[in-house]
Amino acid sequence: MSWNNAAHSQADNRLHVRLDSRCRLRHTRPDSTRRTPLIPTAGTRTARHDLLSFMTTLSQRAKSQALRAMRVTGAFRSIRDSGWRGRRLLILGYHGVALEDEHEWDRNLYLSQPQLESQLLTLCSAGCTVLPLGEALVALEDGRLPPRSVAITFDDGTHDFHERAFPILQSLGLPVTVYLTTYYCDYEAPVFKPTCNYLLWKARDRTVALTDITGSHESFDLRTPDGRMQALAALIQLTDRQHYSGADKQHMVERLAAALRIDFGRLMTRRILQIMRPSSVQQLAAAGVDFQLHTHRHTAPVQRDLFIKEIEDNRTRIQQLTGKRPSHFCYPSGNYRDEFLTWLEEAQVVSAVTCDPGLVNTTSHRLLLPRFVSAAGVSPLVLEAWLTGAADWLPRQRTYAYR
Length: 403
What we know:
The protein is built from 18 helices and twelve strands. The chain is α/β, with parallel strands linked by helices. It has two domains: 5-182 and 274-393, Glycoside hydrolase/deacetylase (TIM Barrel, Alpha-Beta Barrel), CATH 3.20.20.370; 192-270. Strands 1, 4, 5, 6, 9 and 12 form a six-stranded parallel sheet that branches. Helix 10 (192-202) packs parallel to helix 13 and helix 16 crosses helix 17. The longest helix has 19 residues, at 304-322. The chain is globular, with a radius of gyration of 22 Å. It starts with a helix and ends in a 15-residue tail after the last helix.
């Protein structure tokens, strides 16, 4: 599915103008205090407040039971078809689609290709309208969202998006935004930290010393998550302490794979945990994929000049590859701070998505947009609850804001 680029640019400009009068940091979830009644009947606000107060005491298991009850009683359908849902946008986020076993390694970031296809087919069968991100945000502002509006996003721009995700999206005619981090785009190398983490997980049947790499005789029990995290921390501390270059880190990854008896050549051939090459970005952009900002090095410095440099380096490279100036942003790892909002405005960023779950409405801060991030660990029930809007009834205290 393609859209008019000129109209898309105009929409971004209109949205940016509206930002000037409304960009105020909210320390509570923007949609948590003022809500239009879910189903327009008397007493809905009071009933919903009472429900939220009660639900805060429930466990995740009880919440799942509550969602099942809502579905059985027809509440999912009523919420899905309500004017309340019609005035809200679900931004559906993804990270990676496994090339091999990544979805078994990290179920919170990856899912398999069949799982992705199943989730997107569920979205289609639910009667959702999938819009390009920029178009969806302008339609929300103008009060003309189509029923059950959704925008689909993918973070990072790893190679698996091109190989695994895009063919499904293309076959279903679904527009998509990719928040692309660009530093590794020009290097044929896997991203350092997640690759070390992945390699340690693949060696989860043993205890190792890694003396030749770290210089320490400390042993790490890779059979446990804590042991793997300790090993990863030791590797990262070494690179920080000795100020490793990108080439140094690549060499460490190769040595780590050898020490763990893992075929590094196969990992390179399959391009696991590698960012898309420039040629892939150009090919996908020509096919209608919308590439947007995610910082150049997947980091959000707390110093203003460094933060803005990350945005500008990222923007420059994306514009070189796509011919379009990106203006939408995704916080790396979903983490954000108060001061980032002012810096993003200076950098002329129109919107910014978090990983805080929720639906977007007209009171949502445009630089703190909530988003539901899906992965292998998301059940069909929870996905349906978010598509219909029913999950937005449940209390959610999870936030990626720095405290």
